[in-house]
Amino acid sequence: KIRDKGDVKPGKMFTYSMEGRIHAVIGLPWIARRLGRADPQVASALRRLARDPNQAVRLNLVRQIQALGKIAPTLMWQLFDLLSRPEARSAVLGETAAALGRWWDSHPAKVRARLLAIERKLGKFDPEDTVHQVVATVHLHNYVRQGHPDSEAYLQNLIQRCEAPAAASSLRPLQHDCR
Questions:
Q1: How far is CA 153 from the centre of its chain?
Q2: d(Cα 167, Cα 169) in Å, to the nearest integer?
Q3: 12 bridge partner residues
Q4: Integer CA distances (angstroms), 107 to 25, 71, 144, in order
Q5: What's the pLDDT tens digit per position in 78-107?
């Protein structure tokens, strides 16, 4: 059973007690991709690791989740659910939002549902936290590529609230993304 003494402390992303789990979340999706399928044991291990008590393990999993897109899409969406709905750490939510953004063209409804779960949590984070910027960037890229009305509404809402600290910190980096 996976147990750690706590979540990652600021400034300390890695401990040796989690080393094996980090190697697992980095390697298992790519092994499944190489085999062309995720067998039940691999799928079960990845689901457990998506609920790992340590943020660094979950963060590394979301960075590798794309490998499952073509060979195990149902598993990939289950992992996205486990990484977006109950998650409380902004770093993991930001990485999850960025990873979801890559699937918006082919699965807009699935992405939108999971992105909404992340958006509902944004008020809990410091206005300068990068999770605000990541979600805004995902919407900007979707709006530019697809002209999606939900993304347009999200961006218009940010512009209308540009005096608010969270909206201002979200909009500032978008100027560079537009160049």
A1: 21
A2: 6
A3: 9
A4: 24, 15, 17
A5: 999 999 888 889 999 999 999 999 999 899
